[in-house]
Design goal:
Elements (H helix, E strand, L loop, with lengths): L4 H15 L8 H14 L5 H10 L4 H9 L12 H17 L5 E7 L5 H13 L7 E8 L2 H9 L1 E3 H4 L5 H7 E4 L2 E4 L1 H4 L2 E5 L12 E6 L8 H14 E9 L12 E6 L2 E6 L3
Length: about 270
């Protein structure tokens, strides 16, 4: 049961309007694969009847579910590993020295999916920076998808998920087993703050940031959206703060007020000094 071009266009428009995610022509198969199970669960016998129903009513929970189904939520603990090494070996040492008087650090995991990234940051700080005890350290995790944010907030992961990137020593230290899943322990859990945030819309008030991890999300947006988001990041980032993007993303040709900084295998970005 394939979608018609009109049905796919309807879905594309909905997803673009609600998330800024651009679904290219070759993503029709993906829409079919993700929306058919959703249609069935919602009581429709086909994507055609789902789309017909959506197009007749105002935006509601079902539209939201369709939009969320078209997001890609791939993530893992300590994803790519080397950005966390750069944080551990260089960047955090530098920032901690720079903030010795304010004793305040703000880290933002923007588009945190199911939460592995903010918890990786929390573990990194806990493991390697005891000097931060007594500081005000905020790890803010935001996401467009309510379902993903709920998963992040819950902090419960399957065996498969903890097998991806999480060293066994950290698993036993920071998680407790619950049935076949692993639940993050309270002390780490409470170190992360969660918020719904659509990067393509107005942002709620956020504190000035020392570290922004905005990885593997800009790739889904069009050029103008990427530019707008980067310009807002620039205003939020402290002058000596760092922005991390995903391996396939860059500020190059989008916002040249950022400069590239390389730490071993990691490229990150800082606001260029005037
Ligand atoms: C591939 S995951 C990346 C997760 C994590 N940053 C990482 O690198 O492992 C992309 C995430 O971006 C979120 N996303 C997509 N569009 C968004 C938007 N407009 N605002 C905020 N988050 C968005 C998706 O819901 C998804 O969870």
């Amino acid at each position: 049961m394939t979608m018609t071009a009109a049905e796919f266009n309807y879905i594309r428009r909905l997803v673009l309007e609600q998330s800024a995610i651009v679904l290219e022509d070759d993503k029709q198969y993906l829409a079919e694969a993700r929306l058919l199970p959703l249609a069935r669960r919602a009581g429709f016998d086909s994507i055609a009847s789902l789309v017909a129903s959506l197009s007749l009513k105002r935006f509601d929970g079902l539209h939201q579910k369709v939009m969320e189904a078209m997001t890609t939520n791939e993530t893992s603990f300590f994803r790519d590993f080397h950005p966390f090494e750069a944080l551990r070996k260089s960047i955090l040492l530098e920032l901690i020295a720079n903030r010795a008087s304010s004793r305040e650090l703000n880290l933002w995991s923007a588009a945190c999916s199911s939460g592995q990234e903010p918890y990786s940051l929390a573990m990194l700080l806990q493991e390697h920076f005891p000097a931060l005890n007594g500081w005000t350290v905020r790890i803010i995790a935001t996401e467009l998808s309510a379902e993903m944010l709920a998963r992040a907030r819950e902090g419960r992961y399957s065996q498969l998920e903890v097998n991806r990137g999480l060293p066994a020593s950290l698993l036993v230290k920071y998680f407790r087993q619950q049935g076949s899943d692993w639940q993050i322990k309270d002390d780490l859990h409470f170190r992360v703050e969660y918020q719904i945030l659509n990067l393509a819309e107005n942002w709620p008030l956020l504190p000035p940031m020392d570290i922004v991890m905005m990885r593997n999300v800009l790739i889904y947006f069009g050029l103008e959206t990427k530019k707008k988001i980067l310009s807002k990041v620039r205003q939020l980032l402290r002058p000596d703060g760092y922005l991390f993007l995903g391996g396939a993303e860059t500020t190059f040709n989008l916002d040249d007020s950022f400069e590239r900084v390389q730490f071993d295998r990691t490229i990150c970005y800082r606001v260029r000094k005037a």
